[in-house]
Amino acid sequence: METTLYLTRHGQTEWNLIDKMQGHMDSPLTELGIQQAVWLKVRLEDVHFDAIYSSSSSRAINTARILSNNRPIEIQTIDSLREINLGLWEGQQIEHIQRKCPIQYAQFLTKPHLYSPIGHGESYLELLERTIPLLEDIISKHKGEQVLIVTHRITLKVIMSFFMKKRLHEIGDMPDIYHTALCKISINDGSPKVVLYDDISHYQE
C-alpha cells in the first residue's frame, strides 16, 4: 500500500519580487506567481488527489486553489504549515536585515543550528517540532492515498530534511526550493523515499 505526498511552495509574491521578508506576514501572488501555479496545475492535472492541505497564509491558499483545478475536494488550511515565524524581520527588506544583522542572517540561510530569531520568531528546531507531527498525522490518515500539500520555502525545506534524514546543521546545505517547485515522497511499509526534490520541469520560461 503506497502513500504519496506531493509537496510544493506557493507561487511568487509581490514581497518576493521586492526582496521583503514575509514569514507569517503575507502579500499577494504576482502575475508570474499565478502563472507558476498554472504550470504546476497542468503538470498535476492527471493525478488523483484524495486530500489537499495548505498553509493558512493566503499566498499558499491561493496557490492551492489554482492547483486544485476544480477537483471536488475541500482545501484544508492548517496553521502548522505556515512559514517559519521571522519575528522582527517580517516586513523588512532583506538588504536592511543583512546590514543590521549580518551574522544572524547568514546563520538563517546556512547555519540553521546556530540561528536564533530576533523578536518573537521561531528557530528551525521549533519549526520542525510543529511541522513533523502534522506530516506524520497526515500520513496516518491517508494510508494508500495521494495527498497534495502547499506550504513555504523554509517550511518545505525542513519537511524534506526530515524525509531525507538530514540533521539540523545539514539543512543549510540543502538546495533552495523555488516557487511551485515539486517535491514528491512515496511511502511503502512506513519507509519514505524521496522521488522528487525542487523539481521545476513544469516551468515554461
Automatic annotation (TrEMBL):
InterPro entries: His_Pase_superF_clade-1 (IPR013078), His_PPase_superfam (IPR029033), PG/BPGM_mutase_AS (IPR001345), PGM_Phosphatase (IPR050275). Gene3D superfamilies: Phosphoglycerate mutase-like. Keywords: Glycolysis, Isomerase. The keyword Isomerase applies. The keyword Isomerase applies. It holds the Pfam family His_Phos_1. PROSITE patterns: PG_MUTASE (PS00175). It comes from the Bacteria. This is Histidine phosphatase family protein. The lineage of its organism: Bacteria, Bacillati, Bacillota, Bacilli, Bacillales.
